[in-house]
Design goal:
Length: 215
Amino acid sequence: MEGQKSRAVCGNCKDVVNTTFLTRTYPLEESGIEVPGVLVAVCDICDEIVAVPHQSTTRLRDARVRRKDLSIEARIPTHLEDVIHLIADEFSAPVQEFRPGLLRFYLREVAESAEFATRVKALAQSELAQAPARARVSLRTPAALLSSAREQAHRAGIATAAELMRGILLAAKEDVLDGGEPERTLRLGGAAQAEGAERPRPAVRLRRTRKASGD
Ligand SMILES: [Zn+2]
C-alpha cells in the first residue's frame, strides 16, 4: 500500500535505510520505456527507488513485453489508393478504420508465406503498379510483424516499402475485387470485423463455401 514503511538496502546511500511505498514513474533501463504509476519502495533519505514490491512486478513485465509499433510509409499510384476504398466498401467498413487492418493483414500474409511474397513481388513489377505515385499510405504496425514481413519480402526480391505496398494492394485487388481468393477474403472479412466494421458483407460472388458444421 502507498505510504507503507519498510526497510531495505539503498544502493545510493550504501546502507540499510527506512523506505516508504510511493507511486512513481519507473524507467525500464533496457528499453527506455517509462512506466507510470508503479508502486515502489523509495529511500527516505535520498529519494531513490530502492525496491519494487512483488505486486508491481506484473505491471512492469507487461510493460516490458508491450509491443513497440513502427511506421511504414510509401507512395503509391492513385488507382491503388482506390483499391483500398473499394475493398473497404466491399466489407461495408469505414475506410479510415479498415485501411490499417487491410495493410496489416496483408503484411502478415507476406510474413507467413514465401509463395505469397513471390506473388507480391511479381505484381509489384506488373504494369498496373507502375503509374505515377501521387498517393501515400502510411501505417503503424507492430515492430515484430513489420520486420518479419520485410525479411520475407527481401528474400522474394522486394526492395522497397513502395514495392511491397503496391504488390500487396494488387494482390488484395485480385483476391477480393476480382474474387480470386475467397478463402483469404473470408479471413480478411474477419479481420475487418475486428477492426470495427459493423457487418462485413462479402459480395455475392464471394458466397461462403464453408461446409455447414453448425458453427
Ligand atoms: Zn538512499
